Fold:
Amino acid sequence: MHSRLSRRGFLAAGSGLAATAALPAVTGCALTSTDSDPDTLVVHTQLGTTAPGSPTYLAVLDRFREENPGLKVKNLINGDDLAQVYETSRLARKEPDVVMVNLYDKTLAWTDVGATVDVKEYLDDWGLRGRVLPDALKAWTDKKGRLQAFPYFATNWPVAYNTALLERAGVDSLPTTGDALIGAARKLRAKGISPVTVGGNDWTGQKLLAQIIQTFLRPGEAEHLYTTGDFSGSRGAREGIDYFVSLRDAGVFADKAQGLTSDSMTTQYNTEKAAIQSSMSSGLAKVPAEVARHTEVGGWPLAPGAAHDRPTILRTFTLIGLWISPNGVKKLDAVRKFVRFLYRDDVVSRFITESGRDMALHSTSTSKDFPLVAAAQRLGDSVSQAVVPDVYVPPVANQPLITATSTAFTRGTSAAKVRAVLETAYRSA
Structure:
């Protein structure tokens, strides 16, 4: 697996790159000489604007400042371009001390090329191992045994069903099989209701496609598939793609799904234009109360002969971690205070109760004000868990896979063509 962020790239570009070269204009992203001040902790995060959990994060950050009056905190905020901005600052050796971002795409290579450090010894030295869920520790540990970041946010990713719309169309139970889903889609369309809305032109469609392809794959087989991209050589993958195509051409997905995004998907579901969506817990937290009251969460329906015995959901513990940079190691005492603060029971509880976030840490708190998030947490053994492909897909194949996903959601595209475009995305890597 290769990343566009390579050790060679660092060595070639590191000496001559200006500190702020190519940095987008974002909140707090000007790099100054105060960033090297041992009494100033620089945190780079996606939290702080409209990202779910941002109000809670800003509130707990204020609390941290109050409890540590001698320590200044500079908060740098980026959206989807955070990884690129961080890499640019790292090339100039002016990177922030702590980075809050997920394990995906570019970040998969960070620890391996020295852009961030192994935090395993800090987890133990700071007495935090017992705070982390075992599955989260496993997810954040690479093949060399390095803990790439302190696990923090997790997410459940079930399927949301608007039972009021289903009942209006004459569907009296949640579909658990492909045939039942196709039947429900026909009844919904007859009432002018879109069946399954999905962002077929972005990451939401990519994840749902990956989930459906896994219908006939065991977890180990799915991991191998998304590492190699051998969609034609895997019998289970071929069957999964055939299943996806049969659902698509039967009208299960929203019209022109290949052009929809996560925003349009969310809008369609939340305004009750569509009856079904695959939604991660941060999206479930945004479902309006009047819609949530007649929404049930479950899994994705299965085909006969599936490798799973229950409808599937996605679940991941790598949504946000606390990464430490080489500059952060120089301010280790400040970093320790920050990480230990965020790991406190009361702080973790605030993210759960105020923002409806799933956490990678132990907590007895529940998302009472976010009923769909809480319901997803209770699904337990009623669903089976499919593999989230993020940590297996080669980083440079991620964006080509989005393009391939759009092609896959285009009605009439053959299963052979879907396999071909998916494999082409890997060959571009």
About this structure: The CA atoms of residues 60 and 150 lie 18 Å apart.
